[in-house]
Amino acid sequence: MPRRYTLGKRAEQHAATRARIVAATLDVYRRDGFGAASTTAVAAAADVAPATVRNHFPTQADLAAAAAQAVLVDSGMPDESMFAGMDVVGARVAQLAAEIARFFERSASWWAIIQRDRALAAAWSGLEARYYDDLGRLAATALAPDGRDADPATVATVVNIVGGALYFALRGTGLSSDDAVELECSLLLPWLERGQSGSIRPIV
Amino acid sequence: MPRRYTLGKRAEQHAATRARIVAATLDVYRRDGFGAASTTAVAAAADVAPATVRNHFPTQADLAAAAAQAVLVDSGMPDESMFAGMDVVGARVAQLAAEIARFFERSASWWAIIQRDRALAAAWSGLEARYYDDLGRLAATALAPDGRDADPATVATVVNIVGGALYFALRGTGLSSDDAVELECSLLLPWLERGQSGSIRPIV
After folding, report:
1. Lowest CB count within 10 Å: A12, A185, B23, B185, which one?
2. A73 CB within 8 Å of a chain B CB
3. pLDDT (tens digit per residue) in B8-43
4. What is the C-alpha separation between A23 and A30, in angstroms, rounded?
5. Is B32 in CB contact (< 8 Å) with chain A?
6. B182 contacts in chain A (CB < 8 Å)
7. Is the per-residue pLDDT at B55 higher than 70?
8. Per residue in A85-114, pLDDT tens?
9. Tens digits of per-residue pLDDT, B117-142?
């Protein structure tokens, strides 16, 4: 079926060009900042014509969204499969903290770039929102092995403690990744355990 | 001493005009956003001449800094005096959580505006940095009644838990201000207590 083969090859070339443009965009963001990633600059970095960039990504927003998606996929944002075979809440939350920490380490350079490049942060605000959505869903799943609805305040607490701000602050004080995760767990696990034998929010 | 009196009156008028311009600037930020706060718009809102605005605040950055300072002062960012007479770490940290929560409630409308107005957030990034500096200093003071240096990872943890992100997330799930503070304390106080009878970061 030569015709099908040809179409497949075209689609492959199309995908390869798209990937090259996305990789070049990330290079420009990293090297010169979001503001420098004009169609011309991206085309030059990807070694394609500006029209090719516009053909794949009609607007700067399309390009920024594709670049954000590539960062999430490359960094391997964890999913629910990490809880497979685990039915103890504390173990699931510890697993979440450890897996998210590994994700942070893989994507650390990008978090640092977003911190200092406000224009990129603005262009990627949708990415951040999706990250927090995903994390909220993972935390709710970790807290409710039986599929029931987890307490929203408990979900918010887990998201806040494993979500990145504390992790990077602790890494900044010199803690190793493992020690940062251990500290997060030392806050959360006894708190969750106390909560489970009565109110979810124990009075101290 | 008529001359001195006259100078005093002029200084008073100068300060009153300055305060009116700052208040008008905050009105424009709140109503139309940072982007709308041109010298002309601020002058109109303050009912002064544009040259008067420029005389008090040569640049937009000067105006933004003065507006930020006014928000912090009006909202009453707490200081070390809140710990007077308290020498138990847990009580001091609970006091910090409660006082910062009151500060958040007083300044809540501004945090909401910063969230949705990225240009204002950028102009006020210095304010945010100073808030975190102040909070870090307060947390370190809360943790070390004896004036010794507090463990940086413990300071970072206290800052993260009482610092705003968790508080507003909990308020967003429907918790009252008091319940949000109680939840923060239920995380921190037992953790600190365990830490004090050995390693500051207990292994769970």
Report:
1. A12
2. no
3. 788 888 899 999 999 999 999 999 999 999 999 999
4. 11
5. no
6. 201, 203-204
7. yes
8. 999 999 999 999 999 999 999 988 888 888
9. 888 988 888 788 888 999 999 999 99
Does A159 contact B182 at a Cβ distance shorter than 8 Å? no
The two tokens of residue B23 are: 């208040």
Of A173, A179, A186, the CB nearest to B204: A186
Average pLDDT over residues A175-188: 97
Helical pair A177-196 and B152-162, crossing angle rounded to 10 deg: 50
Q: How many CB pairs under 8 A join A and B?
A: 97
Pick among 1.10.10.60, 3.40.190.10, 3.90.1150.10, 1.20.58.340: CATH of B2-66? 1.10.10.60
Chain B, nearest residue to A184 by Cα:
B157
CATH code linked to domain A2-72: 1.10.10.60
Q: How many CB atoms within 10 Å of residue B28? A: 21
For the ranges A2-6, A30-34, A63-67, B156-160, the one whose mean pLDDT is highest = B156-160
Other CB atoms within 10 Å distance of the CB of residue A76: 12
Contact at 8 Å (CB) between A166 and A184? Answer: yes
